[in-house]
Amino acid sequence: MGEPVLPLHARKRITPYQIAQIVLGVGFLVFLGWRLYTVIVVEGAYGPDTWLKFAISGLIIGSVYALITIGYTLVYAILRMINFAHSEVFMVGAFAGFFVFEALKSIMVGDEPRIPFIDAQPLLSIVLAFLAGIAASTITGVALERLAYRPLRRAPRLVPLISAVGASIFLQNAAQLMFGPQRRTYYNLPSLDRNLGWTLEVAGKPVLITYTGVFTFVLAILLLVSLNLIVQRTRLGRAMRAVSEDKPTAALMGIDVDAVISRTFAISGVLAGSAGVMWGLHYGQIHSFVGFIPGIKAFTAAVLGGIGNIPGAMLGAMTLGLIESMGPGGLGMDFQLKDVIAFSILVLVLVFRPSGLLGEVLSQEKL
Amino acid sequence: MIRADLRQGVRSGLVLGVVVVSLLFLGATTTLSTLIGEGLGVSPPAGLVILLLLLTLWIGAQSARGAHHAELPILQAAIRGAVAGLSAGLIIGLTTYVLIAIHDTGADLRTYLFQVSPAALDLWSMERTPVTAALFHLGISTAGCLLGVAVYRLFRAARARWTLTGRLASARASLAQRTGGFKRNQWTNFALYVLVAAILFITPQRLNNYQNFTLGTVGIYVLMGLGLNIVVGLAGLLDLGYVVFFAVGAYTAALLTAPTPHNLMWNFWLVAPIGIILAAVIGVLLGIPVLRLRGDYLAIVTLGFGEIIRVLLKAESLAGFSNGPRGIPSIGQPSVFGQPFNSDRDFLYMIIVGVVIVIFLTFRLQESRVGRAWIAIREDETVARAMGINTLSAKLLAFGVGAAFAGLGGVLYASRSQFVGPDDFVLMVSINVLAVVIVGGMASVPGVIAGAFVLKGLPEILRELEAYRILAFGALLVVMMILRPEGIIPSRRRRLEMHETEASEEPSLAAAPAAEAGGAP
Questions:
Q1: Helices (H), B418-506
Q2: A29, A96, B183, B189: which is deepest, by most CB within 10 A?
Q3: Which chain B residues in 209-248 lie under 8 Å from chain A, judged by CB atoms?
Q4: ipTM associated with this complex
Q5: Residue A350 · residue B301 · CB < 8 Å
């Protein structure tokens, strides 16, 4: 019968976009290979102990990013909107923990010699700081949703996004005006000193693993696991997944959509608040713009892992943390440029694999 | 029923309490009471009382308002007002008590709450003891809220006639009626242009250097706003890294005309087009990888670009090329026929010429095939593609044109201030420009101009409120999005679009915009 008139599998035309993609990709890979080869093999700039140090700090920052990333991913999954002000929710939590520490430092307890509460009861103080951070962040998150996003639920897509940017600027500058422009240092608990830890011997050189680092990592993992349980096993989690699938149908099934959205913001707030206090405990310094960079990084991690996907968010955050701390060393770049690496990853992921490591493509216009 | 009233009252009270306490912590109470005091010729404490009364009146009136503008029984409204006032008063009073108590122990509150200075606290407490100050604030908020309820009841009937939209609509209608007999033709248009040109030419001559400088800044923001207007307003692509193109223009001018770091010292008139073209090229190049992304992704990637450029400009390792964090001084300035052309007034003329050209281009583009393609993409990309629009090239063009306008702004900015550094190109610049477009009115040229004057010009007049400028920006963005997403002077299409959902769902609210739209012929 000969050829069919319309071939079923017509040869795909290569678009200029794909050509650009290929050129960019090949160029990038060649550059990457060359730099890695020069730095690691030819120059041998760092020993195994240094690489281990990079990896450890990458895992720690990655676990903090993971907690923030979940906030972006949950909200995105449910509202299809980027909560720009989430980084400020994190910042508020960090400040709340700081103020609790300062208050406990000035309360004296016990018989003579009277010592500050924070030294007498370090564990209780930490718990109180976390509770305060979580409470402040949760309230901020829920209030944000109520005031800045809920009235815009049916508006065109750009509108809530701009509102979120506005809220973020407002909170940053409100914090700066209220608490002052200077950097604040978290109280360094003697029992959880930032500079102390276990020492490993690698290639004849010591590698320090700080207590706060391990604490941050373990607590973050615990929180992430419990979050996953909430989403997968509980009634609220089921409602959240239903709302993220299809809001009108979920409402018809008797789910109070507004309440679920509000609770999603609350859960994001809990995670961001604890991340804020962890940041303070481990890195020590906070200020009113402390959330900005971690916020963007966390968003990058969310995209990297596949936005709207919780295991993806964790994986993306850890990967980003590792790349960011090992990248400048591996590429022999200035450590000042580590933010450039993170943002370049964001762009590269969106160009080459918009679905992220795990997850479906949401970044491109479809439907 | 009483329960619902209590809940509503407590909710209003919470809002009031949080607002007042935030104002206190932000130091805004002191500034505002001083301003009110100066304005009315009374002392700051009296100004504070007036400020608090205004706030409580507003909340009282809000709490007395029933759902969907229904009339509440007077008792119910009074209960709501009283509960709101009491709960707000409790929050404010308690905060006051705690603050003064801590202050009296000799601790310096400013260590933690930067704005709560002893002077501010004295004003706030009216120099009373903790308990009386707390009671004073409890009393004033309760009284204010009850008063608010009463005022609301009294003026409720008159309100309908006094809403802003209603009055605007009637003003527009009467204006249209009055100018109805006036026909526009070629000659009247020509006369109008001559008149505008004369005003634009004469105004800078009459102003002093400072005024010219300020107007020049506003003009640069108009330039950038019009550029971003094409990207965000027409094509609907939210670009949060617009500062990149501004930086490209400025650094091109700086690197090519300054003695350091390259000592090229080219002529300004040669460099200006290079800067514009380079910005446009960078715009297209950055656009290629990201323009397939959805709006919110695009926003965050462009935000990333904005940060990358700042970090790169600041990096020590690239200081040989860009002078790093030290910035580039003594940037070349233009001259005309051998005469220096570099006073603030001369730059204002150049900026005005630039703005006029850009406005002309915008109008021509907006009505062209490309402009309609942009609007189609903004409305629905998939449908636009189905209609045969090459969305990718249309978007790239939008990015390129928008970037070119910003490049022009950057060149003029660098040459005018004679110095650029990485700190001139922070995220806030992008946000400012975005705010100009949004507040003024997306896709509306007069709107963008109005937005630039409101956001860049007003702060120059309200010097006392300088500290709150960025804060107010943020709040303004949120409030505009909720109350008037179409901006101050919206384009007609946008106005109808933004009220589309309301019109179909709440017939009571649809009356105002529909009347407005009908009023404009």
A1: 427-440, 445-452, 458-461, 469-483, 492-498, 500-505
A2: A96
A3: 232, 236, 238, 240
A4: 0.80
A5: yes
Consecutive H or E run containing A180: none
Task: Say whether B288 and A17 touch across the interface (CB within 8 A).
Answer: yes
* Cis geometry, peptide bond prior to residue A190 (ω within 30 degrees of 0): no
| C-alpha–C-alpha distance, residues B227 and B236, integer Å | 13
CA distance A182 to chain B (A): 10
Residues B466-517: pLDDT tens digits?
Answer: 778 778 878 888 888 888 777 777 777 766 666 655 544 444 443 444 434 4
* SS3 at position B235: coil
Helices (H), B315-390: 319-322, 344-367, 369-379, 381-386
- Identify the three-state secondary structure at position B286: helix
Tens-place pLDDT, residues B141-173: 888 888 888 888 777 656 555 566 666 777 777
CA–CA gap between residue B23 and residue A260 (Å, rounded): 32
User: Nearest to residue B238, comparing CAs of B410, B81, B510, B430?
Assistant: B430
* Nearest residue to A90 via CA among A62, A124, A65, A59: A65
What's the one-letter identity of residue B155? F
Q: What share of chain B is helix, strand, coil (3-state, %, to 5)?
A: 80, 0, 20
A343 has a chain B CB within 8 A of its CB: yes
Q: Between chains, do A158 and B476 touch, taking CB under 8 Å as contact?
A: no
| Nearest residue to A171 via CA among A67, A105, A90, A248 | A90
SS3 assignment, position A201: strand
Q: How far apart are the first and last CA of chain A?
A: 38
Of B311, B316, B431, the CB nearest to A339: B311
Q: What is the DSSP string of B129-151?
A: -HHHHHHHHHHHHHHHHHHHHHH
Q: Are A247 and A147 in contact (CB under 8 A)?
A: no
B chain contacts of residue A334, beta-carbon cutoff 8 Å: 315-317
Handedness of CA B230, B231, B235, B236 (dihedral sign): negative
Query: How far apart (Å, rounded) are the C-alpha atoms in residues B287 and A347?
Result: 11
User: Across A105-119, A250-264, A320-334, which has the greatest mean pLDDT?
Assistant: A250-264
A1 CA: distance to closest CA in chain B (Å)? 34
* Nearest by Cα to A220 from A304, A305, A278: A278
Determine the Cα–Cα distance for residues A15 and A19; give it in Å rounded to an integer. Answer: 7
Does residue B325 have a cis bond before it (omega within 30 degrees)? Answer: no
CATH top-level class of B193-494: mainly alpha
Contact A155 B481 (CB under 8 A): yes
Q: CA B409 to CA B351: how far, in whole Å?
A: 8
Q: Which residues are CB-contacts of B408 (< 8 A; sequence separation ≥ 6)?
A: B223, B249, B272, B275, B276, B279, B354, B358
> Mean pLDDT throughout B344-356?
87
Number of Cβ within 10 Å of residue A70's Cβ equals 29
Ramachandran area for residue B380 (φ above 0: left; ψ -120 to 50: alpha; else beta): beta
Q: How far apart are CA B251 and CA B274, in angstroms?
A: 11
Look-up: residue for tokens 């960079």?
Answer: A293
CA A328/CA A323 separation, integer angstroms: 8
Domain chopping of chain B, boundaries: 2-166, 193-494
CA distances from B287 to A17, B173, B242 (A): 11, 44, 12
Q: Which of B453, B491, B520 is nearest to B229 (CA)?
A: B491
Note the pLDDT tens digit of each residue in A88-118. Answer: 999 999 999 998 888 888 777 777 777 887 7
CA distance, residue B399 to nearest chain A CA (Å): 16
